[in-house]
Amino acid sequence: MSRVRTVLGDVLPGELGVCDAHDHLFLTSPRLPGQELRDVSAARAELAAFRAAGGGAVVQWTPYGMGRRAGELPRLSRRTGVHVVAATGLHQAAHYDGTALAGLRDRLAEVFVAELTEGIGASGVRAGLIKVAGGFHALDAHARRTMAAAAEAHHATGAPVAVHLELGTGALDVLDLLCGEWGVPPHRVILGHLNRSPDPVAHRQAAEAGAYLAFDGPSRAHHATDWRLPDALRRLAEAGFADRLLLGGDTTTSAARSVHGGPGMPYLLRRVRPRLEAEMGAGPVARILAENPGRAFAADWPR
Question: What is the pLDDT of residues 219-276, one digit of tens each?
């Protein structure tokens, strides 16, 4: 039976509740100096605020080597009552310093499988998805190597593969590579940041291919496209793809947390949900938030 692998163990898809399908409790990167998500108490407060707004689950897309703090996640989940899903995988090479990936490139798939089935380091916390990343309208050698390892790890475990699309671009190239060349079923692929490139043709083609489409934000850097989100989702729903859609907050900096004055995780339910309900109706939005994530992140995990 398919289950979602959370940091407290595997749960049935219907147990997730309302889900923030793409966010971060902890995150560090040389590209975000001074903006790291490291504070455990702030992470706990953010999760509690999300829970108070009606949230039931958060999927953390923070991959290997970017400050996941996997050992803290079970305690945060227990204390707040929010399901948390952790990630393995790799981001773009620019998010790592010169030594962070030393000796790793030749055993990526091995590491991903171990983190999915045995646990992340000494924490024992098992990841529930593989996060990888493309570039702006391109897939460089690092992306191809990482995606090849992700495909191998998927075939070994059934884990879903979540993809950072740079500025929302390259979705079809990613599907050609992961699904066409390496045989990952399209319904096991989650394409992230599609709101950052509101191209209805590319969105529809990705949905027709069978992938899940994740729309996340708001974002200070990408605010120019935030206002197009309701129309993009309505178009896809009207075309029959409401069951392929996911929503997330993608909080990547300390200042963006609601507990520090930013929109944070609760914004997804406090502001985004009612705006989408006005555009699409409450029923489709409820399914996007509470039903689709269970299917997208569930797998028949090896015992």
Answer: 776 677 888 999 999 999 999 999 999 999 999 999 999 999 999 999 999 999 999 9
**Is pLDDT larger for residue 278 or for residue 103?**
278
How confident is the model at residue 100, as a pLDDT? 75
- Would strands 298-299 and 57-60 be described as parallel, antiparallel, or unpaired? unpaired
- Comparing CA positions, the residue from 150, 108, 143, 149 lying closest to residue 129 is 150
Could you tell me the pLDDT band of residue 303, with boundaries at 50, 70 and 90? confident
List residues bridging with 27 in a β-sheet.
Answer: 37
88 within 8 A of 131, measured Cβ to Cβ: yes
The two structure tokens encoding residue 223: 């605010």
- Delineate the domains of the chain, giving CATH numbers in brackets: 3-130+216-299 (3.20.20.140)
Average pLDDT, stretch 165-182? 96
The pLDDT value recorded for residue 269 is 97
Instruction: Indicate whether this model's pTM tops 0.85.
Output: yes
Assigned token pair, 247? 């929503």
